[in-house]
Amino acid sequence: MGNRFTCMTKKETKDVGSRSKRMGRSQRKLVAEEDLHLQALSMALQQHQLSQRFEGSMSRRIGSTSSRRRNLSDSFSANKQVPEILENIKIKKFVLIHGEGFGAWCWYKTVALLEESGLLPVALDLTGSGIDLTDANSVTTLAEYSKPLTDYLVNLPDDEKVILIGHSIGGACISYALEHYSQKISKAIFLCATMVTDGQRPFDVFADELGSAEHFMKESKFLIHGNGKEKPPTGFMFEKEQMKGLYFNQSPSKDVALAMVSMRPSPLGPIMEKLSLSPNKYGRGHRFYIQTLDDRALSPDVQEKLVRENPPEGVFKIKGSDHCPFFSKPQSLHKILVEIAQIP
Predict the structure, then answer these.
(1) Cα 104 to the center of its chain, rounded Å
(2) Alpha-carbon Rg for the chain in angstroms
(3) Residue 253's CATH number
(4) Which of the residues 41, 248, 279, 288 has the least number of beta carbons within 10 Å of its own beta carbon?
(5) Is residue 2, in this structure, part of any structural domain at all?
(6) pLDDT at 207
(7) Where is the composition biased (Basic and acidic residues) (predicted)?
(8) Other CB atoms closer than 10 Å to residue 343's CB: what's the count?
(9) Which residues contact 98 (CB under 8 A, 6 or more apart)?
(10) What is the torsional sign of CA 220, 221, 226, 228?
């Protein structure tokens, strides 16, 4: 190859230069995106294989200990400096909580970006989600659904805190955590999420789109009757085409394809449960909200209503994002997460 390079004519050299320029930044971006997708799919396959071999004993976390971290770390040269911005971030551990139907897998871009910034992300599978082997139909309470999160918080050292990020219905889980484990939480970030008030059900946030809970429980074609048709519904899952329109109207097709083969039914009980949130615990938490402005699952108007009725310390907005900014606007989401982490 070296000899061929040195023997090129001027014309050949000019042609190669032109092709190199045409490849440029857009080509490198496509290659990088392809690498991320391959890493995510490889990771999902490895986790599936582990779940078959070790069942209940396998880890339900994606983050600091995965082989993908080692691969992504290779992008750092030995002499690359950690960004100076990290000096302003006291709490570096982020715990990522997915929404209904999703799993830890949906955060793969966010995990990559946070790790490359020198931060410590951990994405968890909630009970009955992702590669957790629990039947979602058996999950009836928010406490059960949130158990992987609360177990993680319980096992933290006494002097350690984390930043929680909850997406969609995952907002109810981080609200629950704020109420019961506020001493372990530095900040709670609601990402187009159900930031409910005391006595409110997570489902109530979606009432404008889905109708009343009573109507949904009786008429919805998306309900799952895990204990038989004659008994109350136990879960729900939208049809694929409807999910594409609700959740992924701005997301890349490869991410949509990944979601279509990875999403699972959601337990119904946790989203129909009224939360008990006190001013002395939940009310003292440092809450932030990220609005998604091209969201068809939780409309911008509904998100605006949430922050108006239950004001957080800060509100951030992502233009052009659907309900899944970790797919459609990962860089914008990352920038906001780092900005919030720097707030004293």
Answers:
(1) 7
(2) 22
(3) 3.40.50.1820
(4) 279
(5) no
(6) 76
(7) 9-18
(8) 13
(9) 104, 106, 107, 123, 124, 125, 126, 129, 130, 167, 168, 170
(10) positive
Q: Please report whether residue 203 resides in a domain.
A: yes
- Whether 324 maps to a domain, the answer reads yes
Helix, strand, coil proportions of the chain in percent (round to 5)?
A: 50, 10, 35
Res 40: pLDDT:
54
Cα distance between the two ends of the chain: 55
Confidence at residue 20, expressed as pLDDT on a 0 to 100 scale: 41
Phi-psi region of 274 (alpha: psi -120 to 50; beta: other; left: phi over 0): beta
The residues of the chain scoring below 50 in pLDDT are: 1-23, 26, 29-33, 45-82
Residue written as tokens 């070296």? Answer: 2
Q: Is 282 inside a domain boundary?
A: yes
Per-position DSSP letters for 199-243, written without gaps between them = T--HHHHTHHHH--HHHHHHH-TTEE-TT-TTS---EE---HHHH
Q: Do the beta carbons of residue 97 and residue 149 sit within 8 Å?
A: yes
Q: How far apart are CA 105 and CA 60, in angstroms?
A: 10
When divided into structural domains, the chain yields a total of 1
Structure tokens at 325: 């900014």
The helix (H) or strand (E) run that includes residue 328 is helix 325-328
Write down the pTM of the prediction. Answer: 0.78
Active site residues: 168, 295, 323
Residue from 221, 146, 219, 213 nearest 179 by CA: 146
C-alpha to C-alpha distance for 179 and 139, rounded to whole angstroms: 20
Q: How far is CA 257 from CA 41, 112, 142, 179, 214, in A?
A: 11, 20, 29, 36, 33
Domain around 300 = 91-342
